[in-house]
Design a protein that fits this description.
5-stranded mixed beta sheet, 5 helices, globular
Length: 162
Amino acid sequence: MTVIEVRDLARDLADAFTVGGLSSKSLDEARRTVAAADAVIAVSPVFKASYSGLFKMFVDSLDDDALRSVPTVLGATAGTARHSLAIDHALRPLFAHMGALVVPTGVFAATDDFGAATFTGGDGVAPLASRVSRAAGELADLMVAHRVGGVSLCFCQVPDRC
């Protein structure tokens, strides 16, 4: 798995959009990584009910077909749950425009989700872990359905559920 920290590309993105489209080795490598990915997990912090501008700049820098038919999970973080609709009202349309195959479950995490001691349905799985597990399962199913390759993936906190 490769992680692209978009904040590390901030200067390169600014240069690419303001200096006549000049790219950099780091930005080109990040773009190639996305274009070659079997699947993508795209996560952005939410500011004022939408993804960050830096996140959008990176998506804007991708080739038009870089995400076409790529199985994708969308995620977002924010200080409060009042931003939880950002996945469906901001990220999902952006990735639909890019042609990504987005799984139904988005993973939103507010500050209260981290280290939360609350549990759902008596199954011993915290709400955030449950959402992550569901989204991961959907991503694995989608990858297999599109013959990307064999997948053995488990994010369960309860081992006998995998």
